[in-house]
Amino acid sequence: MIQPPVTNISYFGAISMIDNALTARVPMNSTVLGQAQGFYAGAAQKELGFLMAMNFAFKTGKYNGSTITILGRNTALSEVREMPIVGGSGLFRFARGYVEARTKWINLKNGDATVEYSCYVLHY
């Protein structure tokens, strides 16, 4: 049986775990500050929209051992996505704010991407 081409891939119900390098700037050879760890789950049936839960876990310098926690909706094909910062630990205890995500590079065949996160955070 031959299936028709899929034209509306939403990834609804799919869950992917992430453990990616958190760098100071977009280039992959930029200074590594820690790891971006969490998951994203296909939460929209008719578009590419994810529920995203992610920690920026800092492993160097002044912020070593601290985290920023993000939880929100990520419409991955939008130019800019805004997601809330819902907390943190260490030097980011009681963190609140938001991040703006911008995809800088994407490979649509395997899903690899480089995403820039601009963080606007208030903390104790």
TrEMBL record:
Domain of life: Eukaryota
Family in the record: Belongs to the plant dirigent protein family.
Compartment list: Secreted, Extracellular space, Apoplast
Protein's name in the database: Dirigent protein
Primary site of residence: secreted
Subunit structure: Homodimer.
InterPro entries assigned to the protein according to its UniProt record, in alphabetical order: Allene_oxi_cyc_Dirigent, Dirigent
Role summary: Dirigent proteins impart stereoselectivity on the phenoxy radical-coupling reaction, yielding optically active lignans from two molecules of coniferyl alcohol in the biosynthesis of lignans, flavonolignans, and alkaloids and thus plays a central role in plant secondary metabolism.
Organism field: Brassica cretica
Pfam family, one: Dirigent
Gene3D superfamilies, per database record: Allene oxide cyclase-like
Keywords assigned: Apoplast, Secreted
